[in-house]
Amino acid sequence: MLEIDGVRLHPRLIILDKDGTLIAFERMWHLWFERFVQSIQARVRLDLQTRIALAGTLGYDLLDGDWDPLGPLTIASTGEILLLTASQLYYHQGLTWEQALGIVRQAEDASRDLLADPALIEPIGDVRGALERLARAGYLLAVATTDNRAPTERQLAHLGIAELFATTLCGDDGIPLKPAPDMVLEICRRLELRPDEAIMVGDSVADLTMARAAGLAGAIGVSSGAVPGELLAEHADSVIADIHAIRIVNGEGAAATF
Length: 258
Hints:
Elements: E1 2-4, E2 7-9, E3 13-16, H1 26-41, H2 48-57, H3 72-75, H4 78-93, H5 97-112, H6 127-136, E4 140-144, H7 149-158, E5 167-169, H8 182-190, E6 198-202, H9 205-214, E7 218-222, H10 229-233, E8 238-240, E9 247-249, E10 255-257
Parallel strand pairs: 3-4, 3-6, 4-5, 6-7, 7-8
Antiparallel strand pairs: 1-2, 1-9, 9-10
Helix pairs in contact: 1-5, 2-4, 4-5
């Protein structure tokens, strides 16, 4: 069994978010956003009003540098971010919708390689060791992320953990996204498990809302990502610092922290 924040759970499946749960979020995504905007500016001249509106639409205050932990750049899929950005170009730049979409897609293509840069793929602690211990203890592992499949697979492979997951669902797989319950329900369906045999571990309110809507056995928040623990608490069964606060408890009641 598992012990999480003093509570003992008996799941068969542990579903994990990626960014902010397994991989450090802020540095990678901040640099991606800067590259993304630079790539747009190489294709169309953006005045200050447009740059402020574009950043604000994604949850970033261009003037003081603050990020909204509940904003689109934190929790939205790549496709949703592109649509929001294109809407600002359409409105402020006098472009057709087709032109606006074309520019943001080209900019995303130009900045996508940044997400595969090994120097930016920083695990949150010994993620591989933690997941290997869970797998050896007999737990099935899965990933549910709003990031696209190509960068997700590259990042998991770089960390040497891709083979530890029984299945992975990504933002461009055609499944309704968090906070809808569909992603975790599809994972359970693929692995032939009931939702109440699974728990969700994630760093966003959307992760936790999804888990509860799906009827999972636990919605576990981690404060290792972009959202402070106090914002997660009202949506979570438990909030822990990171996945290393999950403990495996043996039959005698002794627990191992990783």
